[in-house]
Write a structure and sequence with these properties.
Structural class: alpha+beta
Radius of gyration: 19 Å
Number of strands: 11
CATH topology of the largest domain: Rieske Iron-sulfur Protein
Largest sheet: 4 strands, antiparallel
Number of helices: 8
Bound molecules: FE2/S2 (inorganic) cluster
CATH class of the largest domain: Mainly Beta
CATH architecture of the largest domain: 3-layer Sandwich
Shape: globular
Distance between the termini: 33 Å
Amino acid sequence: MSEALDYLLKVRPEAMGHYFRFMAEAGRHLDPKTRALISVITKVHAQTEAGFRQYLRRALKDGVRPMEVIDALLMAFPALGLTRIVWAIDVLIQMDLPEFRAAALTGVSDWHRVGDTDAFDVGETARIELAGQPLFVHRSAEEFRVYDARCPHQGTPIPEQALKGTRLTCPKHAWKFDVQSGRCTQGGDRPLRRLESKVVAGELLVYC
Ligand code: FES
């Protein structure tokens, strides 16, 4: 939150409470990804860099794909104008998020078969390579979680040996991650990138 909003929240909590409730209520009927994309676009319109970075990361956490962000920016072009779109892309490039690199985006994404679900034990995490991409697959009692094995900091491939129990430590700058949630628990501020996955007829499929 900006310092100004923080200040207003302190000095006029009731008025600001209405404002925040309004914002929450306004997006009630939207799915989380659409809501997240609209929030990103509002930050581009206002050209608030900290807000754009924050809402972009939140959108990715909510499952928005990088190409969906790019599409949203391009679709907003008639309203926002070229200057703001270029500004947003410049910030994106500075952020150097692995999933936004040109090489990552120009490959063709599709559903890939990982293998039988029985091959993965509950509570265990496996490192695999799929379609040229290193992945960690964690199976809990409720679901599968598949993560890009490249560190969200600078894209370093994280090896299997970096996994101790449910804790993953990137060998480059020692950011630590919890594979049960994907959260960065120490050293950094970005979670592992989670990929879409689904189980079809006893097989685990991943979109990458
Ligand atoms: S590249 Fe992984 S912690 Fe820096």
